[in-house]
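PROTEIN–LIGAND DATA SHEET

This sheet pairs a single protein chain with one bound small molecule, zinc ion, given as SMILES. Inputs appear in the order they were entered. The predicted three-dimensional arrangement of chain and ligand is reported afterwards as a token string under its own label.
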Amino acid sequence: MPLIIIILLLIGIPIYFFPSLVAHSRKHPNLTSLFVLNLLLGWTILGWVGTLAWAYSKKHEVIVEIKSTSQADTQDVAMTKKCPFCAEEVRVEAIKCKHCGSDLSKSSSVETADPHVIRSGRVN
Ligand SMILES: [Zn+2]
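PREDICTION REPORTED AS:
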């Protein structure tokens, strides 16, 4: 094999997979699909540039997204409880379930109450 081909491969392969390397070093969440795109469309200039742009752009957005949803989740968990009548999430301060209209003012004891009380609280 001529030396020039080996040199071209040594230089060309890292350049060709540069978007994937960027995505990998940035711990891109869509690394696999990005690599596939890089592999299949990298030979087109547009595909290569697009993959590179994707490798640089997405990570920040996704992290912000994850942060905001996890914050919202923890807030939701802290602020809500499960309605003992319909098992829907309702606010902790609620005295009446917005889903089934049950009285929740003494809900902590209702969870162990007998089924007749629960049935009478439901409107079907
Ligand atoms: Zn309910």
